[in-house]
Amino acid sequence: MPHPLPALIVVDVQHAFDEWESAGKRRNNPDAVARIVDLLAAFRAHGAPIFHIRHEGTKPNSTFLPSRTGYAVKHEARELAGEPVIVKRVNSAFIGTDLETRLRASGIATLVICGATTNHCVETTTRMAGNLGFDVALVRDATWTFDRVGPDGDTHSAESIHAMTLSNLNGEFARIVAANDVIASLRQ
User: Fold this and answer.
1) d(CA 38, CA 77)
2) Which positions ≥6 away from 74 have C-beta within 8 Å?
3) FRET pair for 132, CA 20 to 30 Å: which of 68, 91, 101, 178?
């Protein structure tokens, strides 16, 4: 039996990204975590399913190693009792985890995805969700990324990377939405 509400997939809202910022990396969407908090509150208020994704680093220098402070989830986005935490070791929340099995077993067909970073784990998870046949909404103001240097040495701003990632995903893998629109749709 299909689940009547979408599931919120919260990807990698971990302290490692705060550490990156403290080390000088520049990001976009400074209010993204606040929008994630809004989404969590709305999904909880409506009894909609929430799945927390946590990245576990595998390389010796990873800021996401379980033994390091970066592995911890940001306090404001922590899971509550009964909300599953799925630990992944690659970019996609579907590879090496039981996320798809859990979603299918619960009859969940629609996913709302938020978290970090837009062009890495959020994008990869969104693409796979779309390929797996889920109806996916990616929340544009509840995800963020960082400036990057390309293979030719060109610096690309977090804003342009974020915008291009959303453009690449839009229509083929997901609908691009705002947090307020998701929250309003839960009320209907």
Assistant:
1) 10
2) 13, 14, 15, 18, 33
3) 178
In a domain, 57, yes or no: yes
**Residue ranges making up the domain that contains 76:** 7-187
Neighbours of 45 (CB within 10 A): 11
User: What is the tally of structural domains in the chain?
Assistant: 1
Q: Is residue 2 part of a domain?
A: no
Cα separation, 8 vs 169, in Å, equals 18
The whole model's pTM is what?
Answer: 0.97
Task: Locate 44 and state its tokens.
Answer: 């909880």
For residue 22, how many other CB atoms are within 10 A of its CB? 9
Taking only the tens place, the pLDDT of each residue in 111-151 is: 999 999 999 999 999 999 999 999 999 999 999 999 999 99
